[in-house]
Amino acid sequence: MTVSKHRKIAKAATEVFIAKGYTTASVDEIAMQAGVSKQTVYKHFGNKERLFLAVSMAATDAITGELAAQLDASRTGTADFQSELSAFARTLARMVLTPEITALRRLVMNEVGRFPTLGRTWYAHGPGRVVTQLTPRLRELNDKGLLSIDDPERAAEDFNWLVLAAPQNKMLFGATRSFTDKEIDAIATHAVNLFIAAHRPTSGRRAGGRAVGT
Questions:
Q1: Cβ within 8 Å of residue 73, ≥6 positions away
Q2: Tell me, what DSSP letter sits at residue 82?
Q3: pLDDT on residue 157
Q4: Are 60 and 126 in contact (CB under 8 A)?
Q5: Is the pLDDT score of 76 beyond 90?
Q6: C-beta of residue 88 within 8 angstroms of C-beta of residue 164
Q7: How many CB atoms lie within 10 A of CB 83?
Q8: How many whole angstroms from its chain centre is CA 86?
Q9: Which of 2, 63, 112, 155 has the fewest CB atoms in 10 Å of its CB?
Q10: pLDDT at 1 over 60
Q11: What is the pTM of this model?
Q12: Are 1-46 and 48-211 in the same CATH fold?
C-alpha cells in the first residue's frame, strides 16, 4: 500500500506540475489528485521542493534504466556495431522526445535559477548518465580499431546531442509536439551515420587504436 501511495503521489505531482508549473502547483491539489491527505504527501516526500526533485529524478532514471538494458541487449561485439548504436539512438530518442519529458525539462529550466540542485540532478541523472553508459562501449570500439575515438567520454557527449539537440529544440520551442516512429528512426539513423563518418578509422589504423608501424 505504501509503495502504491508513493507512486500515486508521484504520478499526480507530475501531472499537476506540468499543468500548473512548479510555483503555482500546490501540495493540496497534488494530494487531492492522488486521493491522499496532504500529510501523506509530506510523509512520503517531505515538501514540495523534494517532491519536484523526486519526480524529475524518476523521469530521468526511467530513461537511463531502459537505455542500459538496450545497450546490454543489443551488444554485438564486433559483428554489427552500427546496428547496436542505431538501436541505442532510437531508444534514446523515443524516450526523451516525448511531450511529458519536454514539459518536465521546461520546468527544470525555469526553476534552475532558484533551485540549482534540480538542474544539477537532472543533468547527472539524464545526459550525464547517458554519457557514462555509452563511454565504455565507445572505448571498446576504439580499442578494437572499429572506430577512431581519441576521447570516448567526449564522443559519448557528441553522440547524445547528435541524436537529441535539433529535435529536442523543436519540441522545447513548440515547433513540433511529438515525432512519429518513422521520424524517430530517421533521427537515429542520421545521428549514427554522422557519428560513424566522423570516427571512421583511417586506412593505416589497426586494432587497439595504434597506427601501423608505431
A1: none
A2: H
A3: 98
A4: yes
A5: no
A6: no
A7: 12
A8: 15
A9: 2
A10: no
A11: 0.85
A12: no
The residue type at 87: A
Residues in the chain: 214
Mean per-residue pLDDT, 84-96:
95
Q: Which of 143, 134, 137 is nearest to 162 (CA)?
A: 134
Type of residue found at 170: K
CATH of region 48-211: 1.10.357.10
CA distances, 175 to each of 17, 57, 83, 125, 179 (Å): 22, 26, 30, 26, 11
For residue 22, the one-letter residue type is: Y
How many Å apart are CA 150 and CA 183, to the nearest integer?
31
- For the chain, the domains span 1-46, 48-211
Superfamily in which the 1-46 domain is placed by CATH: Homeodomain-like (1.10.10.60)
Q: Cell digits for 200?
A: 571512421
Q: Measured between alpha carbons, how far is 45 from 59 in angstroms, rounded to an integer?
A: 16
pLDDT band at 204 (very low <50, low <70, confident <90, very high): low
Percent of the chain with pLDDT over 70: 90
Would you state the cell numbers that stand for residue 139, as one nine-digit string? 572505448
Cα–Cα dist 77/138, whole Å: 12
